[in-house]
C-alpha cells in the first residue's frame, strides 16, 4: 500500500518492509527515512516493536555534510534512506545499497555500532 505523506523537515519516519500488516519486530527489516535533516540537528527516536518485543532507540546528528547515527543495537536489520540526497562520500559501518527515486539507501552493517555517512550534495 502506498499513501502520500506530508512530512516536516527534520523528521525520521521508520517503516517496516511488511506492507500487508502495520507491524514490526526487532529482528525484522526496518528503514529509517530521513527528511531534510538540517545542519546542526540532533534528533532522537523511540520505536516500540509489535507484541512487546522491546523498544529501539536511535540518535541522529548532522554536522555539515556528515550524518552520525547511533542506536542501542536492539534492531538487527536497519537501513537508512537519505531522502533527497543523490550522492554519498565516505560511509563508515555501512554500504550503499542503491540509489532509489527518493534518495540514497544505505545498509547499516552493524547496528550496535555507529553509522556515519557523508553526503556530497
Task: Summarize the structure in words.
- The protein is mainly β and 121 residues long.
- The protein has one domain: Immunoglobulin-like (Sandwich).
- Helix content is 0%, strand content 54%.
- It contains no helices and ten strands.
- The strands form two sheets. Strands 1-2-6-9-8 form a five-stranded mixed sheet, with no helix packed on it. It has a five-stranded antiparallel sheet with strand order 3-4-5-10-7, with no helix packed on it.
- A hairpin with a 2-residue loop joins β8 and β9.
- The chain is globular and about 40 Å long.
- 22% of the residues are buried.
- The model has no long low-confidence stretch (mean pLDDT 90).
List keywords for this structure.
single chain; 121 residues; mainly beta; Immunoglobulin-like; 5-stranded mixed beta sheet; 5-stranded antiparallel beta sheet; 0% helix; globular
Secondary-structure element order, as H and E? Answer: EEEEEEEEEE
The structural domain count equals: 1
Q: What Rg is obtained from the alpha carbons, in whole angstroms?
A: 14 Å
Known CATH architecture: Sandwich
CATH superfamily (homologous) name: Golgi alpha-mannosidase II
Regarding CATH, which class? Mainly Beta
Give me the side-by-side strand order of the main sheet.
Answer: 1-2-6-9-8
CATH topology call: Immunoglobulin-like
User: What's the total count of β strands?
Assistant: 10
Describe the largest sheet: 5 strands, mixed
Low-confidence stretches: none
β-strand amount? over 45%
Helix content: under 10%
Question: What secondary-structure arrangement, pairings included, does this model have?
Answer:
Layout lengths: L10 E6 L12 E7 L6 E7 L6 E9 L2 E6 L5 E7 L4 E5 L1 E7 L2 E6 L6 E5 L2
Parallel strand pairs: 2-6
Antiparallel strand pairs: 1-2, 3-4, 4-5, 5-10, 6-9, 7-10, 8-9
Amino acid at each position: 500500500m502506498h499513501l502520500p505523506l506530508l512530512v516536516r523537515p527534520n523528521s525520521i519516519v521508520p517503516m517496516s518492509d511488511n506492507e500487508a500488516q502495520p507491524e514490526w519486530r526487532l529482528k525484522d527489516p526496518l528503514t529509517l527515512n530521513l527528511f531534510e535533516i538540517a545542519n546542526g540537528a540532533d534528533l532522537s527516536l523511540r520505536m516500540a516493536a509489535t507484541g512487546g518485543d522491546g523498544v529501539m532507540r536511535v540518535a541522529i546528528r548532522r554536522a555539515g555534510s556528515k550524518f552520525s547515527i547511533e542506536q542501542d543495537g536492539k534492531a538487527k536489520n536497519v537501513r537508512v534512506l537519505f531522502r533527497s540526497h543523490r550522492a554519498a562520500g565516505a560511509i563508515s559501518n555501512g554500504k550503499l545499497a542503491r540509489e532509489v527515486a527518493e534518495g540514497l539507501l544505505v545498509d547499516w552493517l552493524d547496528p550496535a555500532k555507529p553509522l556515519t555517512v557523508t553526503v556530497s550534495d
